[in-house]
Amino acid sequence: MKKNPxxxxxxxxxxxxxxxxxxxKLSHGEPTFFAFGRTFAMIDNNHHDSGHVAVWLKAPPxxxxxxxxADPKHFFRPPYVGPSGWIGVRLDIxxxxxxxxxxxxDLIRQAHAMNASAKKTRRRAAARRA
Length: 130
Prior knowledge:
- It is a single chain.
- The chain has a single domain, classed as Aspartate Aminotransferase, domain 1, CATH 3.90.1150.
- It has three helices and six strands, in the order αββββαββα.
- It has helices spanning 5-17, 63-70, 101-129; strands at residues 23-27, 30-35, 38-45, 53-57, 75-76, 87-90.
- Strands 1-2-3-4-6-5 form a six-stranded antiparallel beta sheet.
- The protein starts with a helix and ends with a helix.
């Protein structure tokens, strides 16, 4: 049984917007989530006829390669942001074979945390220059 795209997107939205400084706006026609002035998650609702519903997430160095190699059914290298290390996470796999929402939530929180960490680094650099 396939999952309803609107329900999947709403679940991502609920997780993403519960995080500090998180906001949502449309970017390239898809819900996109920002925190601390930068994007950390984007919805792919059959974007450019991709054939799936997914979320693209900022990821730490090496995570993309590890996840895609270990589980290519659920993880992929998304277009545009994939070369920067982002991961694509399929949300629309059948219920009994999909990733658990706690796992997806952890990946969303990790993407968000990367923006928070980057903001702290920018603040420290600005303080050193001052």
